[in-house]
What does this fold into?
Amino acid sequence: MKKNIYLLIILLSLVGCKDFLEETSQDLVRPSQVTDLEQILLGDGYGSPYYSTTIFTDEQASTNLDDESFQSTYDELKWLYTWNKDMFTDAGAGYFHCFWEMPYRRILGCNLVLDYLDEMAGKEVLRESLRGEALVLRAWNYFHLVNMFGIAYSQGNPSTDLGVPLKLDATVNGDFYTRNTVAEVYARIEKDLLDGNRLLMENRYERTFYRIDHLAAKAMLSRVYLYMENWDKALAYADSVLILKSDLLDLNNFSMDVYNTSGTGSVYLATAPDEIIWARNYLTGYSLSSSVIAWVIGPFVVSQELIGRYEQGAFADISAKRVRDLRAFFYFTFGMDIWGFQGDMRESIAKGGSSSYIQGIRTAELYLNRAEAYTQKFLKEGNDAYRNQALTDLNRLRKYRFNKEFPADELNITDGQELLEFIIDERFRELCGETNHRWCDLRRYGLTVTHVLKPEGQTYSQDMRHYVLPIPELVLEQNPYLVQN
It folds into this structure.
C-alpha cells in the first residue's frame, strides 16, 4: 500500500520541517480494504518512536571532549543540555524534528486511519480493533507532546496553561491551529484511551507485543492518571493490568536486558517475554542530518548521579556483574576498553541491549505506579494498609532486580514522605532512559537539575517545576497563531 494519501494531507500548520512540508503526491492511491489501513497504521501511525528528553534530565552528563570526531555533535547538543532558550532556533542548535514534528506525523497517520475506516471493506472485528489501536496511539503521542511543551499537569493550572494544538482529523482546510490548554489535551488523551481500551477489549485481534493492545491502553491510563494525581484511577488501571500480567523478569536468570525477545531477535513473537506489555524499536544513533540524540559513547553520557543511585556492594565490579543491584549491569553498556569506571567512565543507557534499541511499557512501571499511588493515599489518609501495600510492590520488584549473592534488604519505611522519595529514586533506577519517565517525574515533582558543561566547566541549574521546551522557531514561522512558551 503506497503512502501517497498520507502525503496529500500533511498538516502544514502543525509540522515544521521545510522538506517535509513540500512533499506532494502525483498519483493518489486510495485504500479500499481495512487491511490497507492496517498497513498505514503500522507504517505511519507507529513509525519509529523517539523518546528524546534524557539530555534535559539528570540521567545524562557532559564529559571532557577527548575525541574530536564528536565536536560537531557536542556543539549541537550543548544547547539542549544547558536548557538554552535558543536550542531550536537558527541562532542555536537549529531545528530538531523529533520533538514536535515526529509525534504529529504519527498523529496524522492515526487520524488517517480513523477518518477512512468506515469507508473500507473488511471484517468488522478488525475494523473496530484498528479504531481502538489508532485512538490509543494518538493519545500516546499527544501525551508525550503535552508533557514536552506544556507545564506538568500537577504543577500549574491545567485549565489555563497552554499545551499543544489538538488536530483530530486528517483534513486540510488552510486553518491555523492554536494551542489547546493542558486540561483540554489531557481530556482528549483520557477519552481516546478509554474508547480505545473498550474497543480493543470488545474486538480481540491477535497481535504481537510490538503493537498496542488493551493491556497497553490500561497501562497508559495508569500513567496518565498518576500524572493527573488521580490516585484511585491510577491504582485501578495498574491493578487491571497486573491481574492479567504480573510477571517480572528475574535478572539473576538472564543474560541480556528487560526488552530481550527471548533470544530470537524476532519482532514477530506472538507472546511477549516476561514483563513486556508493549515495545517498539526506536530511533537511535548520532545523526546530524536528522538531529537524533543517541545513548552511545560520546560527549553526553550516563551521569554519575544515576549510576550512584544503584547499590553496588563493597566489591563492586559492574562490568563483571558483581553488583548488588543488577540493573547497574544490565541497563547500561560500558566503554571499558577505553575508559575506566572511576572518574570519566562513558556509558550509555541500552535497555534493549547494545545492538537493539527497544522501549515501551513494562509491568515494572505498573508496580511503581501502584506503589506511588498507595503512598500518596497513605500521606493523605494515614491508613497504614496503603503503606504496606506500597512496600509489598517495591519489595517484589527489587527481589527480581538484586543479585541473589547480595540480595535486597526488605524495605520497611514508616515515614510517608521518606517512602515517596524512595519511590521517586526507584523510578529513576528502574525506568531510566525509557519513554520520558525521568523528564516527567522531575517536572511533576518540581525537582531541580544541575548540569556541568565540560570541558569549560560551566554550571547550569534548572528548576523543572514549570519548565517546558520552547516551540521550534520553524514551527512558529509556519503557524503564526502559536504562542511561544
